[in-house]
């Protein structure tokens, strides 16, 4: 065989691509073990930090005069779960004169009438709750959140998707972190309402538990870049504004804002010991739609933010972890490419 032979060149090209794909899988795979080790070595740090936060909160002015909070509920055609969500949010254990609720309703079905009726009833009970509609869906969820902030009176913005059910003490447990003026966001762990419905929901619960129990904890307690997961979290308004606000140029506006806030100097915190349960998708079509959004939505912030991350004033290890975090969905095409390349090489 001569090196200049087209078949030989093609053969070496296939081998090169195959090695690249295997190397990528090895890189992402070993990083999972690295995060596991960091989680094991830092797992008590979160509890110690929270105990310290509670001690500082107990002597702060917020202990007797809590800050104003706006709860934002971005909704789109959620007729089956909107009642459950509103019931949970309106039962939050927080002073009513410090709590404001916004239902950011972009629905196009009868959810609009359901929300209008429910909101009217809660208003009659004395709750500060508003039903906010827009002329269009510009910017989708990011646009709805940005629109709601224009009239929100809260210093802090708690965000819940329609399939979540926040516990009554959610605000009581998360607000103390913000006594530190550099904390911009607090994310809690996702729980599950229906993990045993089917094999699909069981598989989802295992994957989500792995992310929230190990990956988020390892990142938060190791000083690495952390991301807001779009719901079951609370933001400081100032952090959102200084990071450039909600932007709709990616499908994962939550991850985009998280990285921009940290690049601007804000700290993000994670609370593993506080859980906010949610309903897992029961249908394969809903699960595929969710995964498509997460998949494409993580690559878009990667293209947008990696240049800024490389220039950031942080350790090389933190930059390395941030890049792996933003591009981790590349595992899927790498797996497919490895399978198809192995056939001709064999």
Automatic annotation (TrEMBL):
Q: What membrane topology does this protein have? A: Multi-pass membrane protein
Q: Where in the cell is it found?
A: Golgi apparatus membrane
InterPro entries, sorted: Nucleotide-diphossugar_trans
Predominant location = Golgi
Q: Which GO terms describe its biological process?
A: cell wall organization
Membrane-spanning regions, if any?
12-36, 322-343
Tell me a Gene Ontology molecular-function term this record carries: glycosyltransferase activity
According to UniProt, the name of this protein is Glycosyltransferase
What organism is the protein native to?
Tectimicrobiota bacterium
Organism taxonomic ancestry: Bacteria, Pseudomonadati, Nitrospinota/Tectimicrobiota group, Candidatus Tectimicrobiota
